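[Backbone geometry]
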Amino acid sequence: MNRRYRKTIIAGNWKMNNTLSQMKAFADEIRPIMPKSKACTVVLCVPATNIQAAARMFKDCHIAIGAENCHYEDHGAFTGEVTTEMIKEAGAKYVIIGHSERRMYYNETDFAINKKVIAALKTELIPIVCVGESLEQRELGVTMEHIAYQVKCAFANVPADDARKVVIAYEPIWAIGTGRTATAEQAGEVCEGIRAVIRKIYGAHVARSVTIQYGGSMNARNAAELLMQPDVDGGLIGGASLKPADFVEIINAANQE
């Protein structure tokens, strides 16, 4: 982490979990154990049906709310989709874009992801853009080539002032939901490589201001070690964000100097 130049952000991704009543129980459990002062920004990205209630429910915990996906058009015949304006008006400040599960199960392309990033920025939502490699790509030694392509596509036609606002989440696909985790050194190396890609596009001042999270099965046990890496500026947390005590332990790790 390097708080001198950029925010540390711990964001939970609830995926397709937690009804409104389950979310209320989560809020009741986390409220008394949340740290009073935070050196990091805390975000919960919740199902679309929960956003409005979550914005009210977690306000006193100083937890910002995010969406898990958005559409790139601002209206139209896209049954089941939600616009960035809908997300913002519901009370969200962040939106996850390009998660590997969206890429895998819903065939999201890098070009569609770029259009979503632009739409989110236009609506003044903060995009959390996910990038990452498969196990096969890592074993072939093309991790950085693949991720560099994803990053370049995501930032296409994004001006430098907006690029500073984008959060990148490095999520090795082989470590999501598998219990496997990249070593702290592996995570740090790729996050450093991502920053180098941004530096080539926008220069050093923008590159050092962009928050880069690690998102491959970060949990209460390994968070502190991962966050010690200079280019790891937080985490995008899956399963551990569904457990208040575990999520708070990760927040506490991110609060350490």
The chain has a mean pLDDT of 95. The chain has twelve helices and eight strands. Residues 184-202 form the longest helix (19 residues). Residues 9-255 form a domain with the TIM Barrel fold (CATH 3.20.20.70).
